[in-house]
Design a protein that fits this description.
Elements: H1 10-22, H2 33-37, E1 41-45, E2 48-51, H3 52-65, H4 78-98, H5 105-119, H6 124-135, H7 139-158, H8 167-176, E3 183-192, H9 199-218, H10 223-227, H11 235-239, E4 243-248, H12 249-255, H13 257-264, E5 275-276, E6 282-292, H14 295-322, E7 328-330, H15 333-338
Antiparallel strand pairs: 1-2, 1-7, 3-4, 3-6, 5-6
Helix pairs in contact: 3-4, 4-7, 8-14, 12-13
Length: 351
């Protein structure tokens, strides 16, 4: 995972010393250099260095993001977790640079414009509010993460292997989450529609609907007879004795929110209260059956969900694997001790 320091060429050594001077860490005598000064540089990842200043800046961000980071090893100290956070980000930056993935101001603006269009939002203020609501982050925090998310998405497409879930995975998820896949419902519906908008007609029809409900509530077996009679004002429903055959709760919601809401509240064999639908008709329904949405109807959706869940795990594993390919040097004593990284001593000789 981590590489032993290799001998430096003259140019590399001079650059290291110059960097140290810039950070103000070479004022101590040479004997104190490795013990005090070099530790101001926590690590180097490729050509990128991680300093104590970077660590200080990252503490607040890590604290805010920690609830979104699902692969954190909480057995490790906070310092080690933050340093690992910085190293992983630096690895992503290093590989993105190799792959010519660049995220500049123009790219960020383009990404935001695309997301605004997808969300149907025209003003930046509305967009910021929507982002805060959907992400659970402040907009400033979300925006600070956007460059990393763009790089992550690009690397996921071109570099990270993503194995699709198996049929066994899909069936296991379906069996464990039947309550989440929704349900299909079979019901009968009686519709009573007012002939006009007058108050007297509304009153008459409401009373008629209430009388019908009272009648079928007393004898539920009569519901289909009434639904197939002239008392049902919807000719299509009347021809089927009010039957609406198996339909998913989602499709029913798209067709009529009022009917979907009424159906969801009624148990099998139960009869709803009188309610008005979107066409201002008075309705009563009897639920004949409910069942979980068949797996064939949701297989693709479950597969996509599992792919998204595995994407994060796969990306995390891939980044960890890349640590063996990107040159990494650690100078933080506490991190080295906790992670059992051996101490190597080298003498730098300037030509």
């Amino acid at each position: 995972m981590f590489h032993r320091s290799r001998p430096f060429g003259l140019l590399s050594r001079l650059l290291l010393i110059a960097s140290a001077v810039f950070l103000g860490i070479v004022s101590a005598p040479r004997s104190a250099y490795s013990a005090e000064s070099i530790n101001r540089i926590i690590a180097t990842v490729g050509s990128q260095s991680i300093s104590e200043l970077d660590y200080d800046d990252a503490q607040e961000k890590y604290s805010k993001l920690s609830r979104f980071l699902k692969n954190e090893d909480m057995r490790k100290t906070l310092r080690t977790r933050i340093i690992d956070f910085l190293i992983d980000r630096a690895v992503v930056d290093s590989i993105s640079e190799e792959e010519s993935i660049q995220v500049n101001e123009k790219r960020l603006d383009s990404e935001i414009d695309k997301r605004m269009e997808m969300m149907g939002v025209s003003s930046r203020k509305q967009f910021e509010k929507a982002i805060e609501g959907s992400s659970g982050m402040t907009y400033d925090l979300w925006y600070s993460e956007l460059p990393y998310q763009i790089k992550r998405t690009q690397l996921m497409q071109y570099k990270v292997p993503n194995i699709p879930p198996t049929e066994k995975d899909i069936r296991a998820w379906y069996n464990q989450n039947r309550d989440k896949v929704g349900f299909e419902i079979q019901f009968r519906q009686i519709v009573v529609a007012p002939a006009n908008d007058s108050i007297s007609e509304e009153s008459r029809i409401h009373k008629e609907a209430a009388d019908i409900r009272k009648s079928v509530q007393a004898d539920p077996s009569s519901f289909s007879l009434v639904a197939g009679s002239a008392r049902n004002n919807d000719p299509t429903l009347r021809a089927r004795k009010g039957l609406v055959d198996w339909v998913s709760s989602f499709e029913l919601f798209k067709t009529s929110r009022s009917v979907a809401a009424a159906a969801s509240a009624v148990q099998v064999g139960g009869i709803s209260d009188v309610f008005r639908d979107e066409r201002k008709r008075y309705c009563i329904i009897k639920v004949e059956g409910k069942r979980p949405t068949p797996i064939d109807n949701v297989r693709q959706g479950i597969g996509n969900l599992l792919m998204r869940e595995k994407e994060e795990d796969n990306f995390h594993k891939w980044v960890k694997d890349q640590r063996s390919h990107v040159p990494i040097q650690i100078f933080d004593d506490a991190y080295k001790k906790e992670n059992k990284i051996p101490e190597y001593h080298e003498t730098f000789i300037l030509d």
